[in-house]
Fold these 3 entries.
Entry 1:
Amino acid sequence: MSARVVPEDSRRRRRPTKQGAVLSERLIVETALRLVAQHGAEALSVRRLGAALGADPSALYRYFRNTDALLLAIADEVIGRAQEGWEASGDWRTDLRAMGLRIHRSYLAQPQAALLAAHRTTGRPHETRAVEKILGILRDGGFPDQLAVRVYHAFVDQALAFAAQDAAAAALPEAAGEADREVWGQVYGRLPAETHPHIAATFPLLVADMRDSGYPFALELMLTALETLHPDAAGTPKGTRAKGS
């Protein structure tokens, strides 16, 4: 897509597409997600999207000025799906855990989209709601504002980094993924205790653990560390916030 500005009041396409659907931003994003899941980054083209939607490719400019704008909308949709059905429990550790696992699962459900968009900042509605929710969990949980912001940063970066890494593994072709998994048995399982005593001693546990994502445990490590940083750990009354909060 090339950059092109369309007036806001001209964006809606009233006539149905060839498939009988009325074109909308949501329909375009959902179709793009499906195509990206099937074909990867090359699916984000006017030609492919237009063909899949049964619409003239130029009609897409009424909703997205270029491919990057569409990519940001895709990223925002993945963030939105992570929040569907979430309700705060009132316990900051429980709520942070739930939010982190939801983010991770949402990206893994769309691994090709995660590869394209996990590192992007969208500024769109779903993302801003997620930022508000996470900061709310921390501030309502008694973290002072300066610490809440630093925790937010580390928490989100950890979730997205694991999501991107695990999505990259999930997006590998079947043969490549199987070859990677076989390395543990074919290489690590044959290392002699004389040269690699720690690998040899822990190999059964190591190979079993490496089959799964390290994110859930890494998240628990972060939550445990946060317990020590919480004002309550230093005797500060719960709910205390920094000046100006």
Entry 2:
Amino acid sequence: MLENSSILITGGTGSFGNTFIPMTLERYNPRRIIVFSRDEMKQWDMAKKYTDDPRVRFFIGDVRDRERLYRALDGVDYVVHAAATKIVPTAEYNPFECVKTNVMGAMNLIDACIDRGVKRVVALSTDKASSPINLYGATKLASDKLFVAGNSYSGAHDTRFAVVRYGNVMGSRGSVIPFFLSIRDKGVLPITDARMTRFMISLEQGVELVWHAFADMEGGEIYVKKIPSMKVTDLARVVAPEATHDIIGIRPGEKLHEQMISAEDAYYTYEYPEHFKILPTINDWATCPKRIKDGTKVPEGFVYASDNNSEWMSDDALRDWLDVNREKIGAI
């Protein structure tokens, strides 16, 4: 589907974009990938990697600017929406800015994609959008709802929207692994709570989930990847075996465990070999065979959270991942 196509990725200079672009270029050979973001220096640094590849283009812009989106989306077939204000404390202290990017930006993108005749749009979500307790999660839940409803909003147009949701992305900018690596020489790692658990997904797995969504979507689905969990104390012990742990308490807006599917979502959730799919509650889409396909409905009250997960990452699996990705993490 992506072969010889035109793809635009918002927030494309982030950790996800830096993985999505080379993987997609190699796997699908698109006609062009447009990096749409507002940081000119990050674009400048990224462009150095693709000086000999005319398929990668760069477009300065902000999802808050609807007119700029309309210009950037001219001739685009597929969109990956990765732009967001996502640091939890930053969102708490700058709520107006978070809403402008995560909610108003989503509205702008939906309108522009419909009017420009984009075929498929996949928006990146977060575990924090499931039963949100902080502003970032609340804005991403609103964004998810907007993209789901965008399929009805598009009317007679062919544009279709879906969402992918995953938890802690290993090695992504601002995540715990690069942070622990950067301070492990101090001999002390801050741990918010010794009971805390997190989902563990690689950037490559995140990209593959987006590819799957493009291929599988009918419109309105939320895809949740099946991934292992790990206790934060175990993660810290593997990253810095000699360091001691300083329990500092949970930060404002932080959850003890990550959750990606709530008990309320279970009524509309289906299970597949490698992922779950939350179907839309609007119209009759949750009972649509084209969306369900070969899925099995999860039991009533089902919750997919990092503490009740059936799959756990071993110390050796994390060490192997660190050995392979240490150089990449250092470049973040």
Entry 3:
Amino acid sequence: MAQPAPWEHAEPLTVASAPVPAYGSGSLADLLPTLAAGMGVPGVTPAIPELTGTDRACVFLIDGLGWEQLRAHPDEAPYLTSLLSGSRGGTGRPITAGYPATTATSLASVGTGLPPGAHGLPGYTVRDPATGELMNQLRWQPWTAPDAWQPYPTVFQLAHAAGVHAAQVSSPAFASTPLTKVALSGGTFHGRLTGEERMDLAAEQLAAGDRSLVYTYYAELDGAGHRYGVASDTWRGQLMYVDRLVQRLAEQLPPRSALYVTADHGMIDVPFDEEHRLDFDLDWELRAGVALLGGEGRARHVYALPGAEGDVLTCWREVLGEQFWVASRDEAIAAGWFGPHVDDRVYARIGDVVAAACDDVLIIASEREPKESAMVGNHGSMTPDEQLVPLLEVRS
């Protein structure tokens, strides 16, 4: 029986009622290992059974393109919509991003083939146990040694070592960032400014080896959603452009190739009023006993003062229990929110309390996070609008 949408919940919410991502069978972390295993790369395990082997595979990750948003805009994305129906010989279905559904976490899951509890990027901002400070894992601030923070090899590194031609084609700005290093490095990086240039070069890189594993990326759809919302003309214009990029790449695929279109998360627009945007900086109940507020508006990590963990959990459940799944660290881990296992080095990065939005609400922090608090479109939690991302396939 299909689960009801998270906003159709019975009160009060429980940790067990949260729709846990499909780690090990249909999540972002399962995509590259499945493709690499089909090329004979050792050390990876196939986990998405319907994906058959191919000599050359390209993953095109479109930041912010959720499954639900794509299905709601067939006129703006005719080519992508045709892949949903299989009318062009492709196939499409949703997979889950992983928790939280946010860029740094998802890119690390894609590139390492590991869930967040293993790769160790379990949120937008998390506490560094070594320093006690919040670390922004997207911007890598404050700086910390990348290899210590995420020590596992990427699937691209494993593929390159196995003789597969591995390449990433993205913005030049991402060539040497710590996030690229820990999540997407291996083989060669090629920076190109425009989407068209990236599509053309990705096709060239696919043809460069008898076995090839190529990744390419487009960010501006996500930016439009954050600034203007997924109901905006600007967002729809970006979707139209993305649709043309996918078709451009698909029509250039060399022989024995497959293109996989996916995303790191979806998005939801949140109204600008006190009912939907709960301000941590102005709410004494939510602030009581809290040392650090991490994560983002729809996926919060809450770090309590020593000894106050139980009180903070009780208070957050009482205040938010009808709008958020609220769990202790151990409850969230036991429920599998971050994957089937959490490494020891990752354990204390997770909040003492973890709060995931169920309704169209945010916990903003207007004083300490003014830019994030002003965003129209948001993501991070486990609702279908955020969690489900497309997995669309085109074969040559």
